[in-house]
Amino acid sequence: MSAPMTWPALKFVSFMFNSLSSLDDSLRLLPFVEVLDLSHNSLETCATHLEFLGDVISITLAYNSLVTIPSFSVSTRSSLTFLILRGNNLDRINGVEVLITLQELDLGENCLNDHSFLEPFSALVKLKQLQLDGNPIFYHRFHRRLTLSCLAKQVVNTQFELDKKKLSQSEISHFMQRRRPAKSLMERPSYPTRAKPHNRTPDRDSVYGMSPSSGIGTENESPDIVVTPGAIKKGKRK
User: Fold this and answer.
1) Which pLDDT score is estimated for 180?
2) Where is region (Disordered) located (predicted)?
3) What's this model's pTM, rounded to 2 decimal places?
């Protein structure tokens, strides 16, 4: 039985709306594909099958059921410019940091619930557009500020688009003045939770896990965390 023939002339390939639940080695038959659309299927994982691809420019995996960032070949890592992962089940983005040529990344409508998980963005020095709308973090009142703290300094400018809105000059100025390692800004979950009772009421800055100099949590709004003071200990009887 002869080996299957490759399709060297194919540059654009779409498998959208095919109810695919898995990929296989047949992707090796597309050695020169530049645009691949696998959106609107039922993929939970891509395993290592996308590693068969070469110098791909754009990959769309929107509206599947992925729980991790797919792995790519060394060639793809150096060529991929557009990656669409909207509408999956991603709660981490580990693995995206190797895609150093990315310019547009769509992670909207996933399960990202803490801005500290966005630290891999700091490696994406060519990023121009980022979409995170529809994630739990999108509804945090400091979402844009916390997201900016995770970006590479090279991309923070007035042309950068976050959730389809360009950065304002005030956002850029705040980033430059307050730029600190992302960990120090996200010691606590970015989605506030009800704190456990303590014997004393902590000050507001410690509740947010941020110092006053960080510029976070200083807006004139009521705190999002309710702390219930513990019972006062009674003195011992003589």
Assistant:
1) 54
2) 178-238
3) 0.75
Q: What is the pLDDT of residue 178?
A: 73
Per-residue confidence (pLDDT) for residue 177, from 0 to 100: 86
Number of domains in the chain: 1
pLDDT tens-digit map of 108-117 = 999 999 999 9
Name the residue type at position 219. E
Whether the Cβ atoms of residue 156 and residue 172 lie closer than 8 Å to each other:
yes
Cα(235)–Cα(117) distance, rounded to whole angstroms? 46
The answer to whether residue 230 sits within a structural domain is: no
pLDDT at 4: 79
Q: Answer whether residue 203 is part of any domain.
A: no
Residue 80 lies in a domain: yes
Q: Specify the CATH number for the domain of residue 129.
A: 3.80.10.10
Length of the chain: 238
212, part of any domain: no
**How far is C-alpha 40 from the chain's CA centre?**
20
Query: What domain range includes position 99?
Result: 12-189
For the chain, which ranges sit under pLDDT 70?
A: 1-2, 179-238
